[in-house]
Amino acid sequence: MRTIHELKTWPEAYSALVHANLYKRKTVDLRKNDRDFKVGDVLFLREFEPEEARYTGRNTYRIVTHIVDAEEFVAENFVAMSILPIPENQIKDILEPFDQESDIRFDVHAYKAMEIAEGTAEPTFVKGYTMKTMPSVESIREMVQQAGFDTFEITVTNETVKRYYVDEL
């Protein structure tokens, strides 16, 4: 199944992605493989200005055509992805399967047990998932412990996600 990954892209890398000269255009993206990237996935790359901590409004779609994850070529837990622009007249067709799907939203909030006992606990949002099935409680427990908390709750919401394609200005 194809996945759409929404990713921040720094201005220098974004400019190389959309360069008018085909010989200067960036066709490989190196990323931490924290999303289990696969050939056929779509990258929704949004230009992000880190110094101002904001998106610029420029974005582009790329399709993953090849992945290298062998540690002799890239660092552990990283991938080098060959990417190609998706022609404007094909974007809607490629995104069509994603236009509407029913997913379940899982939000994880963490607390410290002592603060709950004292009545001063405020929930801290740790992570949100939108998927068909809930991640394992063990993986959530590890994430919560790494964030420095000892108690967590999972809020489950059934939602219908509607996605719309907006032509780039």
UniProtKB/TrEMBL annotation:
Domain of life: Bacteria
Pfam families referenced in this protein's UniProt entry, alphabetically: DUF3850
SUPFAM superfamilies: PUA domain-like
Domain DUF3850 stretches: 4-83
Name listed for the protein in its UniProt record: DUF3850 domain-containing protein
Protein's organism: Cytobacillus spartinae
